[in-house]
Amino acid sequence: MLFPTSSSTAAGQPMKISVLMIDDDVALTELVSEDLARYGFAVDAVHSGELGLDQLRNGSYALVILDVMLPLMNGFEILSHLRQFSAVPVLILTARGNPMDVALGFRMGSDDYLAKPFGSEELALRIHAIMRRCYQLAAPSPPASGGDRTVLRLGDTEITPGSRQVFKDGVEVRLTSAEFDILHRLFESPGEIVTREELCRVALDRELNSFDRSVDNLMASLRKKLSFGDANGGRIQAARGRGYIYTPR
Question: Which domains does the chain possess?
Answer without folding.
Answer: 17-136 (3.40.50.2300), 152-246 (1.10.10.10)
